[in-house]
Amino acid sequence: MNDRSRICVSSFIGAVAGALYGYLYLTESGRRFRLEIEPRLDNFVGEVQRLRGTVRKAQFAVNEGRQSLYEITGRV
Q1: Using DSSP, how many helices (H) and how many strands (E) does the chain show?
Q2: Is the CB of residue 30 less than 8 Å from the CB of residue 23?
Q3: Is the pTM for the entire model greater than 0.70?
Q4: FRET partner for 58 with CA separation of 20 to 30 A, picked from 6, 14, 42, 52?
Q5: Domain extent listing, the chain
């Protein structure tokens, strides 16, 4: 990708981001949309945090099981 293409792509992304920001923060329908999506995002973040906790517990269980197996078999 040459410099001209990068500039065009960057300009397009900036224009889209600006339009999205303007819609969400400068219009009534954008404000309503933000109010509707915020609780969903909070729920999503909570689910991701619970998933991370579950993965940590699973990793701990695997490590404990491995350590027990090593102790039983005499391997270190």
Answers
A1: 2, 0
A2: yes
A3: no
A4: 42
A5: 3-73
Q: Summarize pLDDT for 6-63 with one digit per residue, the tens.
A: 999 999 999 999 999 999 999 999 999 999 999 999 999 999 999 999 999 999 999 9
Residue 1 pLDDT: 76
The Cα 73–Cα 76 span in angstroms is 9
Cβ atoms of 30 and 24 within 8 Å: the answer is yes
Q: What letters, b where the CB count within 10 A reaches 16 and e where it falls short, cover 49-67?
A: eeeeeeeeeeeeeeeeeee
Show the CA angle centred on residue 40, arms to residues 34 and 44, nearest 5°.
130
Residue 76 binned pLDDT confidence (cut-offs 50, 70, 90): low
32's tokens: 């309503």
Number of residues assigned to the chain: 76
